[in-house]
């Protein structure tokens, strides 16, 4: 099995799926999630937002509170997969897009939940996306989950999971996922587990620099 440095992630993932299909024809379920969240998440996305919220003060965030967001809790993803596997075998391969239900929370719900889970010490300051673009803030990595409006990212938060929902997928709310993630993160040993060296992350921790964030917070949206 090739490691993360062996090539492009997307091509490697597609190749693995094809290999499994060839090895087990007619006995394969392929789940294609979007952004996975929940306790023990070591990808430094939700945990980075929670740690920033816990610091308090004006917290510069891009976009608007009503912006769509699709995330799925790892526990819901696992439960759906196990449920599918427990059913009678089928003759055909089944593929399911599982980015998360459209009604389980918006960008604003996600951020509000991060604030609530950290005792409300931070104050959200919504900033126009263009300011972050102009200051060369790196989408997704420097500011987790942020993707500026662009045709390149148009489908990131709008992929349908209607087939999975019809097949029995149940999605908890974003607020519930973040509440449970915070309970793990801020328990003894949680931050060490969340931010210790993991896969290709090393000592890297995402988030706006101490210079960029205060500058951005001085330019809130006015509409």
TrEMBL record:
<dbReference type="InterPro" id="IPR036291">
    <property type="entry name" value="NAD(P)-bd_dom_sf"/>
</dbReference>
<protein>
    <submittedName>
        <fullName>Uncharacterized protein</fullName>
    </submittedName>
</protein>
């Amino acid at each position: 099995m090739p490691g993360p440095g062996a090539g492009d992630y997307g091509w490697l993932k597609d190749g693995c799926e094809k290999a499994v299909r060839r090895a087990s024809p007619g006995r394969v379920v392929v789940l294609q999630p979007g952004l996975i969240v929940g306790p023990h998440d070591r990808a430094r996305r939700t945990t980075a937002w929670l740690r920033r919220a816990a610091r308090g003060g004006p917290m510069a965030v891009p976009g608007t509170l009503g912006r769509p967001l699709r995330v799925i809790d790892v526990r819901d993803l696992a439960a759906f997969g196990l449920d599918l596997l427990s059913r009678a075998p089928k003759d055909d391969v089944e593929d399911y897009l599982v980015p998360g239900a459209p009604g389980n929370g918006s960008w604003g719900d996600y951020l509000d939940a991060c604030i609530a889970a950290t005792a409300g010490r931070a104050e959200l300051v919504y900033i126009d996306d263009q300011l972050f673009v102009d200051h060369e803030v790196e989408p997704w990595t420097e500011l987790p989950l942020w993707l500026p409006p662009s045709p390149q990212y148009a489908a990131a938060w709008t992929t349908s999971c209607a087939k999975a929902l019809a097949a029995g997928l149940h999605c908890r709310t974003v607020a519930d996922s973040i509440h449970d993630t915070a309970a793990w993160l801020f328990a003894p040993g949680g931050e060490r587990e969340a931010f210790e060296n993991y896969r290709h992350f090393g000592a890297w921790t995402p988030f706006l620099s101490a210079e960029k964030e205060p500058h951005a917070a001085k330019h809130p949206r006015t509409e």
